[in-house]
Specification:
CATH topology: Alpha-Beta Plaits
Structural class: alpha+beta
Radius of gyration: 17 Å
Distance between the termini: 39 Å
Strand order of the largest sheet: 2-3-1-4
CATH class: Alpha Beta
Order of helices and strands: HHEHEEHHEH
């Protein structure tokens, strides 16, 4: 499980390997420390305990799950969200929150209909990663061809 965390960290740090000019204003805006890093809360979403939920109800709950993701992202609390492919560990996806305390994230996770219904469960960790992660929410819409304008 920790292997997933390390692999994700490497994914975000690999682009930083090239030489670039330090930008003090950008570092300040993103909340970066001297290493260009900052703290987040990292969530591993896993298959939940309920497998008895009818398909139609699952679809409704996952629509609510996606709406909740959009809401938390619009509020600036959720920076990254995405699913995993099939895997034997029953990991479903990740969230990276723009928060530093696990206690702040727990109530937000409980607002997710799929979590509340038991379709998803989770593990929460403090995570120290590149402050550049904070640029993803502003950048992603420019890459999403399906986004309505």
């Amino acid at each position: 499980m920790m292997r997933w965390v390390w692999l994700t960290a490497l994914l975000f740090l690999a682009p930083a390997a090239g030489a670039a000019e330090y930008d003090a204003a950008l570092a300040k805006r993103l909340g970066a420390d001297d290493r260009g890093m900052r703290s987040y809360v990292f969530v591993l979403l896993k298959t939940g305990p309920r497998s008895d939920v009818p398909k139609e109800e699952q679809q409704t709950l996952f629509k609510g799950h996606m709406a909740n993701i959009q809401k938390l992202a619009a509020e600036g609390k959720l920076v990254v969200a995405g699913p995993f492919g099939d895997n034997p560990q029953k990991l479903e996806g990740i969230f990276i929150f723009n928060l530093t305390k696990v206690e702040e994230v727990e109530p937000l996770l409980k607002t997710d209909p799929a979590v509340a219904a038991g379709l998803l469960s989770y593990e929460v960790y403090r995570w120290y990663g590149s402050a550049a992660v904070m640029e993803i929410p502003a950048m992603h819409p420019r890459l999403d061809k399906t986004r309505r304008r």
